[in-house]
Amino acid sequence: ERTQHERGLVTEEAEPRLKRPPLFRVILLNDDYTPMEFVVEVLEGIFGMDRTTATRVMLEVHTRGKGVCGVFTFEIAETKVAQVTTYSQQHQHPLLCTMEEN
Ligand code: TYC
C-alpha cells in the first residue's frame, strides 16, 4: 500500500502551481509646464483616485521628480500609459507617463 506522497512520486502528478503574473508600476514624471490641476484630473479620471489621494501623488511627483500611479499587469499598465499620453497630447501638455517592471 502506497502513501499519498508515494503515489505522487511514482506517477509524477503535476503540482497545482498558482503563478502570479508579472506586475508593472505606472510612473508619472514631473515637468515644469503641466498644470497641477491637470495632473490631479488625470490621476482621478484614469487611475480612479479620490481628490485627496490624487493631490498627494501629484505633489509627490512635483517635489520628487516622479511617482507611482499604480501597479498593474502588462496590458492594463500599457493601456494606462497610452491613455495618459493621448489625453496630455490632446491638451498640449508635456506630461510624461512610463511603466517599470516590479
Ligand atoms: N511641476 C508642475 C507645475 O509646477 C506640476 C506637475 C506635477 C507636472 C506632476 C507634472 O507629473 C507632474 N505646474
Give me the secondary-structure topology.
Blueprint lengths: L3 H8 L12 E6 L6 H10 L5 H14 L1 E7 L1 H17 L5 E6 L1
Helix pairs in contact: 2-3
The structure holds L-tyrosinamide.
L-tyrosinamide binds next to strand 1, helix 2 and helix 3.
Describe the overall structure.
- This protein has helices spanning 4-11, 36-45, 51-64, 74-90; strands at residues 24-29, 66-72, 96-101.
- The chain is an alpha+beta fold and 102 residues long.
- A three-stranded antiparallel sheet has the order 2-1-3.
- It is elongated and about 60 Å long.
- The structure holds L-tyrosinamide.
- Residues 28-32, 34-36, 39, 58, 61-62, 95 line the site of L-tyrosinamide.
Counting H and I runs of at least 4 residues, what is the number of helices? 4
Major beta sheet summary: 3 strands, antiparallel
- Ranges where pLDDT stays below 50 over 5 or more residues in a row are 4-9
Decide which structural class fits the backbone. Answer: alpha+beta
* Strand runs, count: 3
Index terms:
Ribosomal_bL12_C/ClpS-like, 102 residues, alpha+beta, 4 helices, 19% strand, binds L-tyrosinamide, protease
Task: Briefly say what this structure is.
The protein is an alpha+beta fold and 102 residues long.
